Amino acid sequence: xxxxxxxxxxxxxxxxxxxxxxxxxxxxxxxxxxxxxxxxxxxxxxxxxxxxxxxxxxxxxxxxxxxxxxxxxxxxxxxxxxxxxxxxxxxxxxxxxxxxxxxxxxxxxxxxxxxxxxxxxxxxxxxxxxxxxxxxxxxxxxxxxxxxxxxxxxxxxxxxxxxxxxxxxxxxxxxxxxxxxxxxxxxxxxxxxxxxxxxxxxxxxxxxxxxxxxxxxxxxxxxxxxxxxxxxxxxxxxxxxxxxxxxxxxxxxxxxxxxxxxxxxxxxxxxxxxxxxxxxxxxxxxxxxxxxxxxxxxxxxxxxxxxxxxxxxxxxxxxxxxxxxxxxxxxxxxxxxxxxxxxxxxxxxxxxxxxxxxxxxxxxxxxxxxxxxxxxxxxxxxxxxxxxxxxxxxxxxx
Length: 398
Prior knowledge:
Elements: H1 2-12, E1 20-23, E2 39-40, H2 47-61, H3 63-67, E3 84-88, H4 93-106, E4 109-113, H5 115-121, E5 132-138, E6 141-142, H6 145-158, E7 162-165, E8 167-173, E9 181-187, E10 193-197, E11 201-203, H7 209-214, E12 231-242, E13 253-255, E14 261-264, E15 270-274, H8 292-306, E16 314-326, E17 333-336, E18 343-347, H9 353-370, H10 384-387
Parallel strand pairs: 1-7, 3-13, 11-18
Antiparallel strand pairs: 2-6, 3-5, 4-5, 8-9, 9-10, 12-15, 12-16, 13-14, 14-15, 17-18
Helix pairs in contact: 1-6, 1-9, 2-9
């Protein structure tokens, strides 16, 4: 997200804007981006999310135009265009149908499927308890997040963006008042404390964004600063298993109505899967250790029910990553803080930020340079909705 914003700003004002990305971990060992499943879908219920992901698809399709350098192609994003398959029970069928109508109206390309049609197209699926399915026919699938990040960063640096390996520790105010933020205090890996003077600071720190906002007393002071940025880390597991008799090469990223998902990983009968836990089962976020019992008890039974061949799967490995979870309404928070007008947020996407990073980077550049959104209107996702207690709900959070 940070590299996308930096890229779009320098693309717009190549010679007239200095952009610095402060990155605590330049190897991205615990970054949400590189630990994600890299999905791209338009199957959302909120217009803004659909439009952002449509642009994400257009961006990936034309990645060499956007991120190529001097005629040389950008890094291949390794996009796998097998779509998403969303499944609904009787309870959720009407919502799935209504969402599909909106998605297609806005430019997506998906089709609703009855249980019998699902079985005809995907013989490996158990569709007995499924009321309706929705299959993305175009612009959906998955890609390699690491290569997209590298391509963004490489192009940003080519355009003149500076990357500072440092940890944000606090803000300083102009003229010793608390009216206008002026400097960011950072500490380098060598322990040296420095300051970075800025006109505008963008908080795009993923799961750590809530903590960074507190450095500006957001959520720790009174008045308009009494409301905290409701973004916190939530640990999610991605399990990798092997099943030679499992679904074939054209298998979409399948999301059961329980929230359990799976997709192929390569060509040798390997798959990855996961499921977001219930609120009462949220694991601690002190580290990225893995709970294998969660797979045995909460994930595998649902996989085996949906795909009978998965009864014989063999779990091979697992990793964990952090969602930048918006506890308020699980949607992105974009735009200026109402008190600190030069503090801008781009965070809280709750698991779907990687696919929307191209659109968010462009949108934040518009706010900063033009003072308004000029492509996709994302004003509904501003910080003010939190103060006004007006959540913007997304039905299809996975």
